[in-house]
Write a structure and sequence with these properties.
Helix content: 25-40%
CATH superfamily: NAD(P)-binding Rossmann-like Domain
Strand order of the largest sheet: 4-3-2-5-6-7-9-10
Structural class: alpha/beta
Shape: globular
């Protein structure tokens, strides 16, 4: 299934000649893969444009035995802060000065004034809390990119918390709008940690996080490096090998033409 290439979302003015602030919430399965990829994206942006990334990583978890293999951690990292461990590694490898916060959002840091919020969290409750903070805040991120997955499938979706992130008719619905069921706080959630690598692999496919993160990073590269995107995200199923793009909202001109 191909996206509607006639309908595109364009990067709004205000992103040139400066560092783009990114807040990455969660440094586990999807988040750790996103962080490593963001370093590559930063290198690419510096090479082809006047843009760069200024990333802050937030996570209150520490590295456990179950994280080895599926997440980019090593045995020497056991017991250490996920956010600090990977951020320090990226900074040393790429000569960056990105920041790490061992804590939770909301609470540890504010989302105000951030250009791009990336959430890689395990539960709907955390998404609800972040969504509530965006509603209450006066300075929302220009974009909110959310990643989520189950055992062998997942999705990523980029949205605009405020209409100012581009023309009004180009505003992209956020994850809370696209999936209104996330607002249901009565739904049960399974965020129990795995105790071993083998158990973790029974709960999730080995490469599901890497695949979802790679697709999300490709979308960010198109938006920040090339200036536009033709879809807002995608559903990815490793078991069936299918990837289904999430279409952009149709603009009034296209609706009239149709």
């Amino acid at each position: 299934m191909q996206p509607d290439t006639a309908n595109r979302h364009y990067l709004p003015a205000g992103f040139d000649d400066r560092a783009i602030s990114v807040l990455l919430v969660g440094c586990g399965g999807n988040g750790s893969q996103m962080l490593m990829g963001l370093a590559s994206l930063d290198t690419a942006l510096r090479a082809i444009s006047s843009r760069s990334l200024d990333v802050t990583v937030v996570d209150d978890d520490t590295v456990s035995e179950a994280n080895l293999g599926r997440q980019p951690f090593y045995r020497c990292d056991l017991g250490n802060s996920k956010a600090r461990t990977l951020t320090e590694r990226v900074n040393l490898a790429h000569g960056l000065n990105w920041k790490a916060v061992h804590g939770r959002v909301p609470g540890a840091v504010s989302v105000k004034g951030i250009d791009i919020l990336i959430t890689c969290v395990d539960t709907a409750a955390v998404r609800r809390a972040i969504g509530a903070q965006l509603v209450e805040g006066r300075s929302c991120p220009r974009y909110w990119l959310d990643l989520g997955n189950r055992a062998s499938d997942g999705q990523f979706l980029i949205g605009c918390p405020e209409p100012s992130a581009g023309k009004t008719d180009q505003r992209l619905p956020t994850v809370m709008e696209y999936f209104p069921e996330l607002a249901d706080d009565s739904a049960p959630e399974d965020d129990a940690p795995s105790c071993s690598v083998a158990e973790a692999l029974e709960r999730q496919s080995l490469f599901v996080n890497r695949v979802i993160a790679s697709h999300a990073l490709a979308l960010l590269f198109d938006l920040l490096g090339r200036g536009s995107i033709s879809h807002a995200g995608a559903f990815i199923n490793l078991a069936s090998g299918q990837t289904v793009p999430i279409a952009l909202p149709r603009t009034p001109d296209l609706e009239k033409a149709a």
